[in-house]
């Protein structure tokens, strides 16, 4: 199997490591707009060789792992050039804009819109993890628009890498993911900002930060270059989630101001139900 990967950061690099483990004979070429990432990917043997769009003439699979605003343009360029039997899939965190961008493309049947819900707060080729996708959910949108044989190829790759598959329409995907992923990143960034504004002494932050703070603010270490386009592409859903989140924060603040700590307790107790849900996932 010949695979070409566009974007050699955490997600693209993790795909290469997983593919090498599960498909020992795989040949992987890659490209990245960041020359330093491309050089690092070669040194780490994430790819066998760097290549541009000319590699699409021979590719069995093309993986698009770039920021979501760039992915729309890249997907069209790739579909312009691929052969009839080449599978193209992406790994982006927003789906509606991408699916609309390629909806009328003559090679739409080659494309599988995917979102593996996997990642860390780190970025770049060095952040790649061989088992990143194991036991993670991969949401596939508009699967019926992908040629059946290419669906099968994609599902074989996803299943070999250990992913669970869910199917969803793009609009539902973007709305749900705004709540369970995008909002948590915004919360983490803004918590980090608040602490940086009020705790001017960095040593105090380092010495006093407990595990609760560290785990809550972990996502604030994520790449702004990746997350800014996500917030832009999913603006409508994110604004809705922020309005609800701010409303809950305001209500909690009012309870404390009014010394209604019985209701504070009940608010937290009701929210403890999240443990049952998340324990079921893990």
Summarize this structure briefly.
The chain is an alpha/beta fold and 282 residues long.
Mind explaining what this structure looks like?
The structure is a single chain. By secondary structure, the protein is an alpha/beta fold. It has 2 domains: 2-170, 3-Layer(aba) Sandwich (Rossmann fold); 173-281, 6-phosphogluconate dehydrogenase C-terminal like domain (6-phosphogluconate dehydrogenase C-terminal fold), CATH 1.10.3660. The chain is built from 12 helices and 8 strands. It has helices at 10-22, 35-43, 68-81, 96-102, 148-160, 170-198, 202-208, 211-217, 224-233, 235-257, 261-271, 273-281; strands at residues 2-6, 27-31, 49-50, 61-64, 87-90, 111-116, 137-141, 164-168. It has an 8-stranded mixed sheet, with helices on both faces. Helix 3 (68-81) packs parallel to helix 4 (96-102) and helix 6 crosses helix 10. It is globular and about 70 Å long.
